[in-house]
Structures are given as C-alpha cells and as structure tokens.
Structure prediction request, 219 residues.
Amino acid sequence: MRGLYSYDSSFRARGYARVAGMDEAGRGPMAGPVVAACVVLPEGHVIKGLRDSKLIPEKDREKFFRKVMDCALDVGVGVSDVETIDSLNIYQATKLAMRRAVTRLTEPPDILLIDAVKLPEVQVKQVSIIKGELKSASIAAASVIAKYVRDRMMYHYHKLYPQYGFDRHKGYCTKEHREIVQKIGPCPLHRKSWEGVMTLELPFGDEGESGQSKRRKSN
Prediction:
C-alpha cells in the first residue's frame, strides 16, 4: 500500500507538485467505448485498500470511486465511442481518450504517469510505466475512475439493448456474449473492427477484465 504512494511521492520530491496518473478501461472488449481517466491525488492522503480496479470486486468499486472523487485535487475523464474506435483502431482511440482526459483537468499536471502508453501530442513531462496501476497510487486511482465510469455506461447501454447482457459482461468477449452475438447478430455498440464481429466467426478472446482480447492488429 505505502509503495503505491511512495512511488508518486518520489516525483514530488523531484519538484513535480501536481503528479497525475492516467489509465483506461475498455481496450479489450468487443463492444462499447474505451474510457480514460486522469487523476491528481493530494500529497499525504492515503486511500486504504486502493489498488488496480481489476483487483477490486465490482461490489466495492463504487466505494473506491467515491473515495477517489472525494479526495482528488483534480479528475479528468475522456471517452472514445465505438465509431471512433472503428475509424481509428483501438490503440489510437485509446490515446485520443487519454488526451481528452488530460484536457479536462482544471489545470495541466507537472508530470503525467501513464500505464504503458506515451502521448507525444500532450506537452507535459510523461513517464510510461508497465503495469503502472500496481506501482502508482494515482494510476490506480485513475483505473478505478475509468472502470467505474465505463461500467456505468454499459449499464445504461444494457437498458437500450437488454438482450445482449451488457450489465453482466460489460462488452467483453465472454462465452455468454459470444453465444448471444452468434445467435442474434451484433448491435450498434459492437466494434466492427473487432475480429469476427461482422462475420460472427467469433474467436475465443478475453473472458473478463484482465486479459487481452483477440482483435485486428492495431498500431
């Protein structure tokens, strides 16, 4: 726990007062948007139990979402919808969502800690960190915000397309989701660029929130 916070503190000790963490939710699913969040946490404030959102049970995510929102100095959220994902590819759409999240902060951060991505268009000092949500408190906080916001969007989409079960699988390529799409076909929320969606020859891909789905190669 302390390690998450000491990592961010090490950057403040180098003179970066506003340390922002960035993460996304929704790169792997075959349906729905990709959501990015950027979070600036206050120095010295510890959220007990904060960790990567994928390690937090769904029933507890709202609690951590509220805790982050209550204490954060700044929060920005960016979204790329399905049309954007299909026109750009998922990697570029994810970076666009991240750029949008940064611009929605009330003021630019002094340094941006990002989970395994770099944003050359953003004129802020950046550090790309592999598995950053396991090392940085601000990235872990961003993962919570992004995941909670995306889940709420998928609950809303479930009301529009209840036959697909978006409230359960959130658009990921679970066995249930594959079988539904193979039976009744895709809806407007399905990513046409995701391998097999349009042909209904769906590969076995991501069964949940932690793996990598099979999709067309994106650069």
